[in-house]
């Protein structure tokens, strides 16, 4: 019985970079929870809500952000792991998730330094994910 060939370095780098994106999301969410006491004031300072709505809006924002971060992180971790099992469809699914994540971040206008770092890491991961060596290994041609 022969062992399956090892994944190429490009694919390993891509998956590790996607996992780093997932960790960034979870870390950012954890920091948001740690600073949740200041969140109502920050929401109020945005000038988009009345003072009596600031606390409830901040809580909804916190829970929504948490749900989305966990969902995206689970997708990045899960599809990344499936790539190591040569599940070629996981590459497409991962790309769709990343595109949705990108559209969501850019659509909200919440592009801060952390999101810019995540964006650069995601672009690098996508490049490695779609390189020839990764494609050949995922499709079994190598």
| Dominant shape | elongated
The amount of helix comes to over 70%
Radius of gyration: 18 Å
Structural class: mainly alpha
Biggest sheet character: none
Protein name: Integral membrane protein
Transmembrane segments: 61-84, 96-129
Keywords: Membrane, Transmembrane, Transmembrane helix
How would you characterize this protein structure?
- The mean pLDDT is 90.
- This protein is mostly helical and 142 residues long.
- 75% of the residues lie in helices and 0% in strands.
- The protein is elongated and about 60 Å long.
- It comes from Saccharopolyspora rectivirgula.
Layout: helices, strands, pairs:
Blueprint (H helix, E strand, L loop, with lengths): L8 H26 L4 H7 L8 H30 L5 H20 L4 H17 L2 H7 L4
Helix pairs in contact: 1-3, 1-5, 2-3, 3-4, 4-5
Keywords:
single chain, 142 residues, mainly alpha, 6 helices, 0% strand, elongated, transmembrane helix, transmembrane
Q: What's this, in brief?
A:
This protein is mainly α.
């Amino acid at each position: 019985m022969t062992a399956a060939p090892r994944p190429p370095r490009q694919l390993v780098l891509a998956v590790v970079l996607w996992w780093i994106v997932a960790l960034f999301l979870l870390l950012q969410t954890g920091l948001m929870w740690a600073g949740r006491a200041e969140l109502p004031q920050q929401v109020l300072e945005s000038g988009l809500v009345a003072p009596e709505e600031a606390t409830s809006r901040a809580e909804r924002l916190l829970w929504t952000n948490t749900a989305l971060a966990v969902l995206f992180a689970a997708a990045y971790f899960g599809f990344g792991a499936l790539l190591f099992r040569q599940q070629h469809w996981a590459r497409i699914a991962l790309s769709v998730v990343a595109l949705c994540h990108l559209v969501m971040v850019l659509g909200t206008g919440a592009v801060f330094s952390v999101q810019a770092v995540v964006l650069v890491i995601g672009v690098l991961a996508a490049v490695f994910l779609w390189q020839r060596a990764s494609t050949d290994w995922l499709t079994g041609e190598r």
